[in-house]
Predict the structure.
Amino acid sequence: MTVDGLDRLGDWLLDSSVTFLNHGSFGACPVPVLNKQQQLRQQMEKEPVYFFAVVLEALLDEARQELAAFVGASAAELAFVPNATTGVNTVLRSLSLQPGDELLTTNHEYNASRNALNVAAQQTGATVVVADIPFPPISAEQLIAAVLTKVSQRTKLVLLDHVTSQTAIVFPIQPIAQFLAAQAIPLLVDGAHAPGMIPLNLKTLGVPYYTGNCHKWMCAPKGAAFLYVQQEYQAAVRPLVISHGANSPRTDRSRFHLEFDWVGTVDPTPYLCVPEAIRYLAGLLPGGWPALQAHNQALVLTARERLAQQLGMTNLCPAELIGSMASLLLPSGSALSLQTALFERFRIEVPVIAWPDNTTRLIRISAQLYNTPSDYDVLVRALMQLLAEERARA
């Protein structure tokens, strides 16, 4: 598998016998970044007390500074968390909700985050309000209107995916954030897929809360994510695990960092590898991260057109709402059995998703630098065969 004449599959540990079209689920960490993690783990295990008590804080600060530059934020507003789901739960836990308050989201919201929203409502008597977004959408304006028409005087928080998991839509966050800020309604963005997939500048975006994974499109090791909280909101935001930072007498660091940087003994090396992941991915193409993001978007759009043409699909999401993933509607049938057949019979790793219910299914393709157009040709041939077999059995 090549890009500009360079073999890129070898940069990852991915099984070459599998056509891997599911970078979106868990990411994939390049070998040099994994090597950096192993070096850090050896340093940690060589003298664990010294590492945790003396060395770690400075390493976290350094990693946070480089992450802040990458996502367009102040390091003072960033905390490391193991995943975006933790970030969402952390913010929801910080809210002071009353019966009758409304929490607004969409029908495209990631299941784990929606569950967290439901629990927050159940525990406080608040209500979850859902904006229905059609799929595929017609335009960004349609998405914006669908969300904003559901805002009311009782809305206390809006939770939106930056890039939706099931449907792979890049939401127009900034205009929504501007409207909500004028109404003094906080917006929590679940940016699980966004960092590394699309350009991201949190200061420009203008949201009070944002959480994103570093292990997906940034290709850091599993268990690396961040929570961004504007400083005026930080006093109410506490980690899910309360530890030594809660009563620390130190005044040389913010309470925000004192609490989030130490929640107990964990392996911090995924966080510490974020700078290495940023640098390594930036060096894979001459144009750095902008070139990588443009390459992945162009590849997934080309692949989507190929699938749509061969499978007779005409209703597609606008290209400007696509990053490095794309979802397409499939004929009705079992999502699980089709995904299983694709892997077991054709060695293709790609998600087939029952959404919005069991009567409809989507296939979601991802594009990363190790993928080539021939990967999607393999998928097209397999789908044509399997869908024909389904029709014959019907």
Q: What stands out?
A: The longest helix spans residues 48-71. The radius of gyration is 22 Å. The chain has two domains: 2-21+288-393, 33-279.
